Amino acid sequence: MKKKELEHYRKRLEEELVALSRAIGRLEKSVLQRSQREASGDLSAYSIHMADLGTDAMEREKDLLLASTEGRAVLQIREAMQRIEDGTYGVCEICGKPIGEKRLEMIPYAPLCARCQMKTEREQS
Fold first, then answer.
1. Is 98 helix (H, G, I), strand (E, B) or coil?
2. Taking the domains of the chain in order of start, what are their residue ranges?
């Protein structure tokens, strides 16, 4: 891959990293640093109705799952930036063939070509 292309992808990865860091920060403020009492808006430590308690728990769980997913994306972005440094960026980790430009534009941190990604997903299901 040419130096100009690598710089383009490095910039894209840095932008994604900044966006994810901001999103994780917002999640931490809204979920991880709030107590059950603050989350429910009640004066007591728990929701008054069991359905409210279930809804509060479900929303908190959804936000924690989102934070976990975003955390994994941050890790993938950092790994992609390391591949740029190593000179292996844009090369499929399984088959060793170049990852398509369209795929890298959509998912700049993709470690696998589309064919190997589909094969991996089929094997996991």
1. strand
2. 3-89, 92-125
